Amino acid sequence: MDEEGETILFYSMNETFVCWNIDDCPVPVDTDLGSIVDNFEHALHQMGFEGRMSINVDCKKLNSNEEALFKAGRIFYLPYGETMYSNYGGELHRVLHCLKSRGHNVLLVELPPDEKCLFSVDSLLKNSRFLGGGKPRAKKELTPEEMRPLYDSEEEEEEDGSYDVSDLSNQKMLDFSERIKHVKGPRTVVFWDAIDCPFPLCFSPEQIFQKIKSVLMKKGTNDNITIWAYVDERSWRDKCLGNKTWDSRIYFLPAGDRRVRMLNDMYLQCRDAPLHHCPGLLILVSNHFSGDPFYMDLFQDMEHQNYHPFLIIPREHSNISESPDEWPQSLFNRPRKSSQGPLPKKPKLDAA
């Protein structure tokens, strides 16, 4: 790991996404708003980030200064993201490390205690560092070997087929901390909220997987199925995250703020294994998405990755009303229309 203040010579032509929490780092009242984006661009160029840049803002409410910046069309604002990071720190830290493990350069702008960010070039340079340590500074000259990757395709092959996740089931709990590879072809991925819809306690993880797989295949899905189950810390976690001895592709993860965690993991799944030339089905079993237009919009965005999203709302199934022999047939027999339901209207931005 690099020392905190060590300078790292750096150069990248990849696009840079700036994620800015205005609640934590507000725009100073007397700041020239037109200069802020320019300062970000100049600072990034001095750090070696030469690609396109976009600024994405998350906050509960814009003040008048910030509304002017938004209206100028120089930032993107998430107007209903006030619930997005209710467990902001821990989940953000996890996702940043997930991105770093996938080859992204993660740059943090962290202010010392009691210091305001003026969003000047000098302030941004002073307070920026890579996740893990080290301050990037632009390389002035690149060797031919360093230039060559800049012109190669940024996208990796869709799926290289080097290994299937089932080969790792007894060796490693797949929790999205690293890139997950899949074999080529159609697939079905299931994200199951096991707090909203608990599994029958009489079943082993192997039996749970086989029962869900059997019902899905009767519905016409392919047999390449992976299940991620988000479980209560006090019950299933101790049982299923300890000794993993089953062969099926079912993985148990701690729920935490499960709506945020599950959504982030779904995006990581789509990023790890995009489907360009074959279909895929993404099934979400949860009560926690249908009533929130912000989360439902993000969930339905999975379709842009060629994953067909399908939401199942298990309200009347939460207490396992079926007999063990029938489970989970009635859950998957519900009409799709009633599973999805109409979406609430999105709230409008006051500044628009």
Explain what you see.
With 352 residues, this protein is α/β, with parallel strands linked by helices. It has 2 domains: 7-151, no CATH class; 165-340, no CATH class. 28% of the residues lie in helices and 17% in strands. It is built from 11 helices and 12 strands. The protein has helices at residues 33-46, 64-71, 88-101, 121-126, 144-147, 205-218, 236-240, 258-272, 293-300, 329-332, 336-340, and strands at residues 7-10, 16-21, 53-58, 76-78, 107-109, 128-130, 135-138, 187-193, 225-231, 250-254, 280-285, 307-312. A 5-stranded parallel sheet has the order 10-9-8-11-12, sandwiched between helices. The longest helix has 15 residues, at 258-272. The two termini are 45 Å apart.
Summarize the structure.
The protein has 352 residues and is α/β, with parallel strands linked by helices.
Topology summary:
Blueprint: E1 7-10, E2 16-21, H1 33-46, E3 53-58, H2 64-71, E4 76-78, H3 88-101, E5 107-109, H4 121-126, E6 128-130, E7 135-138, H5 144-147, E8 187-193, H6 205-218, E9 225-231, H7 236-240, E10 250-254, H8 258-272, E11 280-285, H9 293-300, E12 307-312, H10 329-332, H11 336-340
Parallel strand pairs: 1-7, 2-3, 3-4, 8-9, 8-11, 9-10, 11-12
Antiparallel strand pairs: 5-6
